[in-house]
Design goal:
single chain; 500 residues; Amidase signature (AS) enzymes; eight-stranded mixed sheet; three-stranded mixed sheet; 16 helices
Length: 500
């Protein structure tokens, strides 16, 4: 077959069915995915490690799974494949070759997908944009001057550009949902403990792994396959009563849905997102759901402080792990921003961290009370449309100040601990004001999804977020399927697809 131009008309399950029915071969699908990657990746920089030869060696021996033969991409963060570089978006890890697959990667492989590359991510997955020094910026297929979001920005761009119908992601503060919203995709963050932990209770359970996809059913089918605790799991969660995929075909009762467009941090929300939420409320009412405006009663300042304390603390711990694995010299290969965030983590006390974790529980209590009255919370996924590539880069003066603080070290910085932390939290707040709605579900452990229901006047996707009670991915999937039928999005494609 010389090109399979109908490739992007299918989701992952659709492509797998073509392979099962022998209408195409897994090799033909791989050839098409590679052709698309070679055409488009130079324009969007979604794939940072090509594994084309490895995939060709595997193509005739893929497991008989639900996605057998479907080309697949792995986010290059904590997703170890034996003998393949896991760079974590960093020059420091660029020669690190894992000795075995992680549990999650093993589960992906068991579905029959053919992994043919890894996707770009910011260093250590720390940013809501994907612009690592090691690999350069990933660009949004809808407008290549703009960001695809982060930290699963490479995966999002690859799926939006129709290189693959689904790709892996991780979400520690919105890193599946943010880029899904910016790229017009479906993205669901599972409940805490639903999928195997990839990094020893990474981010204290705030981070969860899953996929970004074109269709709802691909996401549901993949979660069916990868869900469940791994060995030594810190959280054991109740399994679903039925498969997520089969649940899509069961009736959805009318839901009580609350919505808010107010940022928990008090920042501005773009008019496109406010209109999209209001229009979504009308759509939901038309589908028979009860919708009303209501904001959950939790402290935005508490949420912000709790999140940033975890963020700083785990960055410091990640740098310690790097030193243990690759030696003290490896730290010099880290970006200035990462080293500075680690320094802030070193400035925190044990009591700072414990107090923040206690606040997680307080916020979860407030959300549990909220869900006594409402089945779901609806918000914008992001507070603004994607920003220009490079617009959030560190200024020359800021870089100089950062390097000075790093040179001072934790001992000297500790003398100015309070002022340094307050200044840094203020700077972080400015960035989080662009994505203020997603961190909540990471701290409470609730499942949350971004659904691509609207496009702006400039033809940019606008995602709507829904948050469900802990352990209730089923309601999210069923609502998403209903919305997908009422207002389909898979047929909307960026112009870059015309290159195929």
């Amino acid at each position: 077959m010389s090109g399979f131009k109908e490739y992007h008309q299918y989701d992952g399950l659709g492509l797998a069915e073509l392979v099962r029915s022998k209408q195409v071969t897994a090799k033909e699908l791989l050839d098409e995915a590679v052709r698309r990657a070679e055409l488009v990746n130079p324009k969007i920089n979604a794939i940072n490690h090509s594994l084309f030869d490895l995939a060709r060696q595997s193509v005739d021996n893929l497991p008989e799974g639900i996605f057998s033969g479907v080309p697949f991409l792995l986010k290059d963060l904590l997703s170890d494949v034996q003998g393949v570089v896991t760079s974590n978006g960093s020059k420091a890890y660029n020669n690190y070759l894992p000795e075995k697959d992680t549990e999650l990667v093993s589960r992906y492989k068991a579905t029959g997908v053919n992994i043919f590359g890894k996707t770009n991510t910011p260093e250590f997955g720390l940013m809501g944009i994907t612009e690592p020094d090691a690999f350069g910026p990933t660009r949004n297929p809808w407008n290549t001057q703009l960001t695809s979001g982060g930290s699963s920005g490479g995966s999002a761009a690859a799926v939006a550009a129709r290189i693959v119908p689904l790709a892996s992601g991780g979400d520690g503060g919105g890193s599946i949902r943010i880029p899904a919203a910016h790229c017009g995709l479906f993205g669901l963050k599972p409940s805490r403990g639903r999928t195997p932990d990839v990094g020893g209770e990474h981010w204290d359970g705030a981070s969860c792994e899953h996929v970004l996809s074109l269709s709802v059913r691909d996401s549901a089918a993949m979660l069916d396959q990868i869900q469940g605790a791994g060995v030594g799991a810190p959280y054991i969660i109740k399994p679903p009563e039925q498969s997520y995929l089969s649940a899509l075909d069961t009736p959805l009762k009318p839901l009580r849905i609350a919505f808010t467009t107010q940022s928990p941090y008090g920042g501005t929300v773009a008019s496109e997102y406010i209109r999209a939420v209001e229009d979504s409320a009308a759509l939901l009412e038309g589908l028979g759901h009860h919708v009303e405006e209501k904001r959950p009663d939790f402290s935005g300042d508490m949420l912000l402080n709790s999140y940033l304390t975890m963020y700083f603390g785990h960055t410091a711990a990640d740098v310690v792990d790097l030193k243990k694995l690759l030696g003290e010299q490896s730290v010099k290969d880290l970006e200035d921003n990462t080293r500075f965030l680690a320094l802030m983590g070193q400035c925190l006390s044990a009591s700072d961290y414990v107090s923040a974790k206690r606040d997680w529980f307080c916020i979860k209590q407030q959300m549990d009370l909220f869900h006594q009255d409402y089945d779901l919370l609806m918000t914008p996924t992001n507070a603004c449309l994607p920003v220009a590539v490079g617009s959030l880069a560190m200024s020359g003066m800021k870089r100089l100040q950062t390097r000075l603080a790093i040179a001072m070290g934790a001992g000297m910085a500790g003398l100015f601990k309070k002022s340094l932390l307050e200044i840094t939290k203020g700077e972080a707040r400015k960035n989080l004001d662009k994505t203020p709605f997603t961190q909540l579900a990471n701290l409470t452990g609730q499942p949350a999804m971004s659904v691509p229901l609207y496009w702006s006047e400039s033809n940019l996707p606008v995602g709507i977020q829904f948050v469900a009670p802990y352990c209730d991915e089923t309601t999210l999937f069923k609502l998403a399927a209903q919305l997908e039928q009422a207002q389909p999005w898979c047929g909307r494609m960026p112009d870059i697809v015309d290159l195929y």
